[in-house]
Amino acid sequence: PSPTSPPPRTSEMFLRSFLLVAAAAGAAEAFQPALRAGMTPKVNARSACDITMQADNGAMKKAALGLAVPLVLGLGAADANALTSKDVRSLNYGEIKGTGLANRCPEVAAGSDSINVEGGKYKITDMCLEPKSWQIEVEVSKKRGETTKEFVDTKLMTRATYTITGIEGPLSAEGGSGMTFKEKEGLDYAATTVQLPGGERVPFMFTIKDLVAKASGTEVAPGTEFGGTFKVPSYRSGLFLDPKGRGGTTGYDMAVALPGMEADGGEGQGELFGETNKVFQVTDGSIEFAVNKVDAGTGEFSGVFVSEQLSDTDMGSKAPKKVLLKGIIFGKVAPADGTEDY
């Protein structure tokens, strides 16, 4: 402030201090380990997502929204730490730096309005997805030596850089029969790593690239459910080199230190081929999100999402694992102004 600027009012200073404390508390929750050392892995037997991973299946199953119901209840306790977009705009860079607030998605404080998108051109902007839960599908031993695949809780290893935001794309009403949102641009990917109870770390690219999500009706209102599929790019690009200098588009074609395994003609050939033949793999993912609050005055909405995708394959050398993410979503419905690139 300049020497002639009046001192900030006590109420404004108190409000900013409260927002910073709330942001720090909310950010700290994301880094709480899912399991304490030495404890038995907690398996949620009811969290196996029944969403199909095939891109050609447009009819999303309702299992994902069944998972969203307990998620809403679980996140309800954190409403006291929820931040609105107005709260975020009231803070400057110095007040946000180091608090973890930049990794938070805003939420609509309250609102049961509806936004009708029929008969016009609309878009969704400022879409933000913040995961609150990360689970990996693994084989779990049961009684009598039986094994079954279940989603287990994991510990987040990535710092506060796992949220995707600034996503936007057109929102259209198709002849009054439903709405379609197509993701076109934004910070739509975040490299994330989680750790399983046994210590194994699983990297994956959290994303909703090329998402095409559909919903019934022509209004965005509490209870509106969107569902669709998206593409998951490879965790690493073709320029990545492994410890032996092998890459997809550059580097060595093979590991010079392993001519014996290559000449063997039998044992180890499959493993050697997978490590040597680097590929950029694009897999399919699916997501469902439910709107629970809408502010027609600002066009903002917030809700919860459930997403399922595959983890990294280390450029084709490892089998991917299923990743189940649950969290909150925020977005803004606005009329298209013709300046969009889509």
Which properties best describe this structure?
342 residues, alpha+beta, 8-stranded antiparallel barrel, 6 helices, globular
What does this structure look like?
With 342 residues, the chain is an alpha+beta fold. The protein has helices spanning 10-30, 63-76, 85-89, 93-96, 259-264, 269-276, and strands at residues 115-116, 122-141, 147-153, 155-156, 164-173, 178-182, 185-187, 189-195, 201-207, 209-216, 219-220, 225-232, 283-295, 300-310, 322-335. The protein has 6 helices and 15 strands. The protein is globular. Strands 2-5-6-10-12-13-14-15 form an 8-stranded antiparallel beta barrel. It has a 3-stranded antiparallel β-sheet with strand order 4-8-9, with no helix packed on it.
Quick overview of this protein structure:
The chain has 342 residues and is of the alpha+beta class.
Main sheet: strands, sense, barrel: 8 strands, antiparallel, barrel
Strand order in the largest sheet = 2-5-6-10-12-13-14-15
Q: What is the structural class?
A: alpha+beta
- Number of helical regions: 6
Strand content: 25-35%
Tell me the helix content: 10-25%
Q: Tell me, rounded to a whole number, the average pLDDT.
A: 79
Q: List the helices and strands in order.
A: HHHHEEEEEEEEEEEEHHEEE
Radius of gyration, rounded?
23 Å
Total strands: 15
Low-confidence stretches: 27-78
Overall spatial form:
globular
Distance between the termini: 41 Å
